[in-house]
Amino acid sequence: MKRKEDWYKHMAFYQIWVRSFYDGNSDGIGDLYGVYEKLEYVKSLGVDGIWFSPLYPSPNADYGYDISDYRDIHPDYGDLDQFKKVLEKAHSLGLKVIMDLVVNHTSDEHPWFKESRKGKDNPYSDYYIWRDRPNNWDSLFEGKAWEYDEERGQYYLHLFAKKQPDLNMDNPKVREEVKGIMRFWLDMGVDGFREDVINFISKKEGLPDGIPFLPVIGSMMNYKDGPHIHEYMREFREVCNEYDCFQIGEGPMTTVDSALEYVAGEDRTLDMMISFDHMMADCLYTEYIHRPFDLKKYKKALTRWQEKLAGRAWNVLYLENHDHPRIISRYGSPFFHRESGTCLAASYIFLQGTPFIYQGQEIGMTNIRLGSIENYIDVSTKNNFNRYHIKDDLKKRLARIHVSSRDSARTPVQWNSGKYAGFSKVKPWFFVNKNYKRINVAAQEKEPDSILNFYRKCLELRKNSKTLIYGDYREYYASSREIYMYERKLNDISYLIVCSFMPIPVKVRFPRNYEGREGELVLGNYREGRHKATIPEGGLSFKPYECRVYRVRKSLNP
Ligand code: NOJ
After folding, report:
1. Element (H, E) at 135
2. Exactly one of 76, 196, 323, 362 is catalytic; which is it?
3. Measuring from each residue's beta carbon to the nearest atom of ligand 1, which residues come in under 6 Å?
């Protein structure tokens, strides 16, 4: 079936990780009552849709990504009626809603698994991947990828935590279940799905051993983009096509070429793929090995995706989500909080693709530093501490956790300077970052030049410009370690986006084809209003983390 207009291209999304968003019923946990109250705020950012991280019942071994019932709402967050109210209100405000679809694995407390472990002649026996002998695969979250189950007398596969057994997608009944789940939510009115680790769902036949001396990555070649992946994705796509819904996949370790096999062309099986390349400018494999931020790596990754997808597919643009530490603490500078937060925003929102903003990113929330590993909750943080950093002394191990933990993205949103940062009336389920008196929504609402208001300006500018949505991308000064400069161009309009990543003033030369051209400075992060401007010949001194967005018309160029 031919799909209708690609409505997601002009949109921007806001991601809600509900547990830490806003507590509407005063039990210390964020919930759908809180979301309902804050929908106007979300709308005020200038976004057009919401991606909800999992809202389903879950024992929370991996905070919602271990689902025990796909057709209900976690009682901590409300119930189906409350979800419907949120959905209806979101739609009335013009916000689309997409759900997280996590079908590589379930919780071990899902009824399917409880049945499956009972024995080989159970109707759910082949819903999971059982073996008498494990292969050598590593899990991403907890040691080896196989766990012995006493009840069944066999090992089951878990690519993530032990409490997240992998579904056997080769079983047609499992795929029918997935389609049923999709229909359930689509019939209720949701607009699409973000599909968790979707490139892992088809495992290589025979489950061969991985390369033994390469932890995790050595096993991945046996299940990333596996042999039947596109067949299965086509089946799911058919369901989506019935509803004109939107599908975005998460592709850990995906390369741009393998992503294109999902997202390019009319018969694509996904509309977009979440890539990780640009999130590895200060680390390897997102969490394990840390390095200082390397601007060239960041730019190279962005440019690679921009260029390879141009005219063929559409990018997901993001800098934060619930899996990554806060971006100012990584690629920016807490000493230039406002400046680097705004500069980072301009560095990605004007690229070609659909921008995503993660809760708290719009006010520049930063990483939390907890004094002991016991205070961290995330299963992968604990795994990294106990497995990958084990050789370091305790201080160093904790320091690594401070820079890499996913828990930094999961602290309660800082709404105001009141008790518990206005997140809840009672003690929240997790630590509030101590900087909430300084960094919070209420304070930034009042400050015209705040990060919050800068995000609003960026989204408004993008929304009203076909050039910024559809224009061609070109990077300038790719080898600079100080500046990220790129152009978006459509017909006779060009935008030049210039971002300094330096904490000191730096001289910037504009490209020859721009020098001396009259245009407009449409956005900047140093309190300069929108005004006519000639692009200076001979360059300009940029202040720390200064960014500028110029708009020029070809016809003005003599
Ligand atoms: C990716 C999700 O974003 C992450 O939070 C989760 O832990 C893993 N997939 C496993 O579901």
Report:
1. none
2. 196
3. 62, 65, 102, 160, 196-197, 250, 322-323
CA distances (Å), origin 539, targets 515, 531, 542: 8, 18, 9
Give 494 Cα–ligand 1 centroid separation in angstroms: 38
User: Is 205 one of the catalytic residues?
Assistant: no
> Residue 501 has which token pair?
């990543």
Distance, CA of 373 to CA of 140 (rounded, Å): 19
DSSP state, residue 425: S
Which residues contact residue 343 at a Cβ distance below 8 angstroms, ignoring those fewer than 6 apart? 332, 499, 500, 501, 525, 545, 546, 547
**pLDDT of 73-123, one tens digit each?**
999 999 999 999 999 999 999 999 999 999 999 999 999 999 999 999 999
List all residues 6 or more positions away from 279 whose beta carbon is below 8 Å from its beta carbon: 286, 319, 324
Domains detected in the chain: 7-104+172-459 (3.20.20.80), 111-157 (3.90.400.10), 473-552 (2.60.40.1180)
Type of residue found at 157: L
Any catalytic annotation for residue 196? yes
The total of other beta-carbon atoms located within 10 Å of residue 231's CB is 12
Q: What is the CA radius of gyration of the chain?
A: 23
Q: How far is the CA of 276 from the centre of ligand 1 (A)?
A: 13
Residue type, 243: Y
CA distance 551 to 514: 10
Residue 221 to residue 208: CA distance in whole angstroms: 10
Q: Are the CB atoms for 191 and 90 separated by under 8 Å?
A: no
Place of tokens 């499956």: 116
Which residue's CA is the nearest one to ligand 1's atom 5? 323
Query: What's the whole-model pTM score?
Result: 0.97
Residue of the CA atom closest to atom 6 of ligand 1: 65
Q: Which atom of ligand 1 is nearest to the CA of 406?
A: 5
Q: pLDDT digits over 396-417, tens only?
A: 889 989 999 999 999 999 999 9
- From the number of C-beta atoms within 10 Å of its C-beta (0-12, 13-18, 19+), residue 409 rates as buried
Asked if 341 and 420 touch (Cβ cutoff 8 Å), the reply is no
Do residues 450 and 338 make contact, with C-beta atoms less than 8 angstroms apart? Answer: yes
Phi and psi at 45, nearest 5°, equal -70, -20
Give dist(CA 478, CA 83) in Å, integer.
46
